[in-house]
Amino acid sequence: MKEDDPEAECLEWFWVGLNDDDCYPKEFLEYLMQMVDDIETGKQKVYPMDENFMNRLKDLTEGVEVDYDQDDLKQDMKTLEELMNEDSDN
């Protein structure tokens, strides 16, 4: 029972407390934690972005206004995941 396990009870209160503050949902934070673990264990490859790349990106997007919503973000994440899976298959 959780009431008998102080650690489990503490974790439960932690997640409840986050929800009270209108922070990110538990599922999203767990997803991020899993992503970090996957990167640290080498399950997912990381593509660093150096300063030159960031400067080029800024130059290419200067003055561009983007109408970007949740659906766009979901599609981009799906595409990124597919690209990462292609790299891991090679």
Could you explain the architecture of this structure?
The radius of gyration is 19 Å and the shape is extended. The chain is an all-alpha fold and 90 residues long. The chain is 68% helix and 0% strand. It has one domain (2-89). 0% of the residues are buried.
Quick recap:
The protein has helices at 6-20, 26-40, 51-61, 70-89. 68% of the residues lie in helices and 0% in strands.
Largest sheet: none
Beta-strand proportion: under 5%
Molecular shape: extended
Number of helices: 4
The helical percent reads 55-70%
Please write the string of helix (H) and strand (E) elements: HHHH
Termini gap: 46 Å
Secondary-structure-based class equals: mainly alpha
Descriptors for this entry?
90 residues; mainly alpha; 4 helices; 0% strand
Task: Indicate the topology.
Layout: H1 6-20, H2 26-40, H3 51-61, H4 70-89
